[in-house]
Amino acid sequence: MTPDAGNGNTNGASKGNAQQGNGAGGGGGTGNQRRRQQSRRRKQNKAKPVRLWRPVPQLPDPTPVVPAADPTVVLRSLGDLPLQGQVAVAEHYVAAVVERAAALATALAASADLLGTPGGDDTESEG
Prior knowledge:
- By secondary structure, this protein is an all-alpha fold.
- Helix content is 53%, strand content 0%.
- The protein has helices at 3-19, 30-44, 73-78, 87-111, 123-126.
- The longest helix is centred in the C-terminal third of the chain and has 25 residues, at 87-111.
- The chain is flat and about 70 Å long.
């Protein structure tokens, strides 16, 4: 055997492997087979679909919403805001946001005819 013949066999063997389609030579398509097998596995592991429009039990009647006399009480109970040098301004803006949210909640309750009176219980007038 000559050194050329040995190299020829080795090169011939590697060319043969590339032509057999190991994915590196752009030939055989084993990559496509892997993708199909993976997609089959994924389809088998899917959960059952949820029925979104199934009937649900009737909800209880909502309770009346009573507006808070001072919605910022909760903020004050937590203490000062942790903003050094900005506490007064920050408290003012956070209080404004809380008051606005309370006003919107009151308006929403009024639009749904769920507005209660402070200190009163509306369940007595229904029966």
